[in-house]
Structure formats: C-alpha cells, structure tokens
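Suppose a colleague, Dr. K., hands you the sequence of a protein chain of 145 amino acids and asks what its three-dimensional shape might be. Before reaching for any lab equipment, you can write down a predicted structure in token form. Begin with the sequence itself:
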Amino acid sequence: MYTRILVPLENTRTDDAIVAHVRALAKHCGASIVLIHVADGFAARNIKSLELKESEEIKKDRAYLDELASKLTADGFTAEAVLASGDPAKEITAAALREKCDLIAMGTHGHTGVKDLIYGSVANEVRHQSMVPVLLVRERPGSSK
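The predicted structure, expressed as tokens, is then:
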C-alpha cells in the first residue's frame, strides 16, 4: 500500500500521536519513514541568504529528529530525518515529492473556529497543496509532553 511515509513533526505532544500511528502503519505496509521538521523562525528562514550560523533552536530541532530516527531504526524501521526551513506547508509538500513519499502523515491539534484562524493550520494548507495523500491524526485530549 504505502512504501515511504513523510511525517512532519514539531516537537510537541502532537508528535506522539502521529508517530505511534505511523509506527503501526509502517510496520503493516513495510514502509520506510521520513521524519521532517520545518524550522520557520527568522534565523531559519534567512540562514542561507544572511549566511547565519545554526541557531540553538535549529540545533535542538536537528537533535530531536536524529534521536527519534535513531529510536525508530533501533526498533527495526527504516527511518531518516530531514530538517528544512521556511514556510512549513510549502516545505512539507516539496519534501514529499523530493523524498518520493507516497503518504504524508501529520498530527493535528484539533483547533477549530477562532483558534484555527489565530494559530493557522499547516495541516489544512498541506492537504490543499499536496499531490500526495495526507493522513491527519489528532492528538489525544489530555496527553502531555
């Protein structure tokens, strides 16, 4: 069914729900997993054009992705980590094509109405932009990280 699953992460409790779901799905399908985090702060968006050094936030993001990929690999999965910067929805949809993924599996916060307007919804943008199927998994109420 699926051979390569892109999993956008943001280092929040939402990640737990999507990673648990993807582990089961990848095991069932024999799929590899590509973890991605899109850093979208000022330094991340301008690191190349302004020739900036990696910020502490970007270093922490890279360490988080690498640690999670290592755990998945230790558990028998084929897993890679990709750190991107810029507009999250654009970077996620571009990565899905570049990495030859046939599914994007995203965790969502479940914001609705006003909260969605205030916080925005990367998941909503991705589902509209992507040519690859998108699976959305909502975090469990009351879960914490």
